[in-house]
Design a protein that fits this description.
CATH architecture of the largest domain: Up-down Bundle
Number of strands: 9
Order of helices and strands: EHEHHEHHEEHEEHHHHHHHHEEHHHHHH
Shape: elongated
CATH topology of the largest domain: Fumarase C, Chain A, domain 2
CATH class of the largest domain: Mainly Alpha
Distance between the termini: 12 Å
Number of helices: 20
Helix content: 40-55%
Number of domains: 2
Length: 521
């Protein structure tokens, strides 16, 4: 990855979008993009001068599209559009998601089909580069005609209104403008509509979900392998020959990862002749369950990256005498895979909870509740209550938002995607999943120590060692919420998976070898 990304010219990926948001990659407008932007803005100006009727340039919006707007009022129209559509409610969205909205909108506008002026796009890039990130309420978009409400809030600061998170504090835009010596922008024809039509709210939640879900998938394989070791399970169900007979790519990848994670384990070798015929499904069927969730993740990633490079506002300006009013702003293409991914993420938590339960049963040489002196101590009984609660909550979040549609704009917008809800809901499931996986990891690390002096594979021992940098073995009860939060922290910040991958790389092991597309963002 180079240190520079050319908006509107280069292909944007989830990894690059996140890198720009984190400051690791700089997004710029090069000469080619500037030329396309200027041509498009010029086309809009010609439309205004010739007084040709074009939706959103010199007409009202939605059901008011038949209302003609005078040449003199075209700028006022755009200003009032942002004000009237800023109807979002609820808590502010995460600042990283709002920043991704700015980044993805600049990339779409810079392709030169939206008629937004260079000066306006440059002001958006100023917000990105100076971390003056608009405050955007989380609720209010139906995901068709674009994400109108959140995008309106996102761009209120351009016209001197709204709020920004600036220098770590929530400030009125007026304060930000005074502090920086900038002035509010007067929007030109079509600009307000070009800013607030689009799927950037849905898209930015999808980008974040692609990153977070990939991390959870990687962690689930490692943690599941640790639970298998602690429960003296067999690796026979991960045999490559078995999975060649049902060659789903996600299944084959998980089976390969489990084989590599368990390779040369002394714990595994110690019970090869134990006589146990089969393991429970939550151990034996990890390739099938984790693999199906990986397939869903890949589908979401592929469609997200199409959307990252799409133009989703309306109308599209091809030339001064060639405009198309269509429906590229409709969120359905992302709403469906976001809901699918929501089920897939929920299932990762469901099977993880079952492994947590198995670790507590006191079978196969482990003490009941993973503690020697139970009765006086409750051991790891109650953390599994939390996984049960989180799994149940995730199930309630699995109703597909995209299955619903409520007409808006007096029936002009008579089918909507509700994809904004799909995106937020998936990220709520991922919040819960990170805690579920943390509790399984905490339990598996506790259980593995009852197998000492035997050791697991080098890879799983490295995972165990990293956890022990934050949480010690539990001899007796303590406030396990503190342990859970510490372990969840190393899952959430990606460091748990990164540490295992770094150790594997140092040993010359590639855990995602030969599976193009699945290996990263």
């Amino acid at each position: 990855m180079t240190n520079q990304f050319n908006y509107g010219i280069d292909r944007l990926t989830t990894a690059k979008a996140i890198a720009i948001a984190s400051g690791k990659l700089k997004g710029v407008l090069n000469d080619d993009a500037i030329n396309k932007i200027n041509i498009s803005a010029g086309n809009v100006q010609q439309i205004v001068e010739k007084e040709k009727t074009v939706y959103g340039v010199n007409t009202g919006f939605g059901i008011l599209s038949n209302s003609k707007i005078s040449k003199e009022d075209t700028a006022t129209l755009q200003h009032r559009l942002l004000e009237s559509h800023s109807v979002g409610v609820g808590d502010p969205i995460p600042v990283e998601v709002a920043k991704l909205m700015l980044i993805t909108k600049v990339h779409a506008l810079a392709q030169g089909f939206s008629g937004v002026r260079l000066s306006t796009i440059e002001r958006i890039t100023w917000h990105i580069e100076n971390d003056a990130i608009p405050v955007v309420p989380e609720k209010g978009s139906v995901g068709a005609s674009g994400d109108l409400a959140p995008l309106s809030h996102l761009f209120l600061p351009l016209i001197g209104l709204g709020e920004c998170l600036y220098k770590g504090e929530r400030k009125d835009t007026g304060y930000v403008l005074r502090d920086t010596g900038l002035e509010a922008i007067q929007l030109g024809p079509k600009e307000g509509l070009g800013l607030i039509n689009g799927t950037q709210f849905i898209l930015s939640y999808a980008v974040k979900a692609v990153q977070r879900m990939h991390n959870c998938l990687e962690a689930a394989d490692i943690i599941g392998a640790m639970s298998l070791e602690a429960l003296t399970g067999t690796k026979a169900p991960f045999d490559e020959r078995l999975h060649d007979l049902r060659p789903f790519a996600g299944n084959k990848l998980v089976a390969q990862r489990l084989r590599l994670l368990l390779k040369d384990s002394a714990i595994m070798q110690s019970h090869v002749d134990c006589g146990r015929v089969q393991d429970p499904y939550s151990l034996r069927c990890m390739p099938q369950v984790h693999g199906a969730s990986r397939n869903a993740w890949l589908h979401l990633k592929e469609l997200t990256e199409i959307e990252l490079n799409a133009v989703t506002d309306n109308p599209i300006i091809l030339a001064a005498d060639d405009t198309i009013s269509g429906g590229n702003f409709h969120g359905q293409p992302l709403a469906l895979p976001l809901d699918y991914a929501c089920f897939a993420a929920s299932e990762l938590g469901n099977i993880s909870d079952r492994r947590c339960y198995l670790l507590l049963e006191g079978k196969w040489g482990l003490p009941m509740l993973l503690m020697k002196d139970v009765g006086l101590n409750s051991g790891f009984m109650i953390p599994q209550y939390t996984t049960a609660a989180l799994v149940s909550e995730n199930k309630t979040l699995c109703y597909p938002a995209s299955a619903d549609s409520i007409p808006t704009s007096l029936g002009q917008e008579d089918h909507v995607s509700m994809g904004s809800i799909s995106g937020r809901k998936l990220n709520r499931v991922l919040d819960n999943l990170e805690f579920i996986l943390a509790i399984e990891l905490l339990s598996a690390c506790q259980a593995i120590e009852f197998r000492r002096p035997l050791k697991s594979s080098e890879l799983l021992e490295s995972a165990h060692h990293y956890v022990r940098e934050f949480v010690s073995f539990a001899e007796e009860d303590r406030i396990f919420a503190e342990d859970i939060n510490k372990v969840a922290g190393i899952i959430k910040d990606l460091s748990f998976v990164e540490k295992v991958n770094e150790f594997a790389g140092a040993k010359g092991i590639s855990l995602n070898h030969d599976f193009e597309g699945f290996s990263g963002l």
